[in-house]
Please model this.
Amino acid sequence: MNEKGFKISQYACAVLLIVSSIALVAYQVIEIDDVASGLLYYVAQSFLLAGSIFGLDQYIRIINKHYHEHTNQ
Model:
């Protein structure tokens, strides 16, 4: 798998986690009028993983940019 396909799969995973978290919470609020603590744990973990996927990619871009600036001088 090439690098572009790998990034697309990372972003798709992150977006899917966020969307599934929101959908599950919305379903429980509408149907049960309550949110279970286990679901809140799932939401927190999903947002942490999605944030780390986007954050790590941004961090690597910044490091590569600085590396290329210093090696091209």
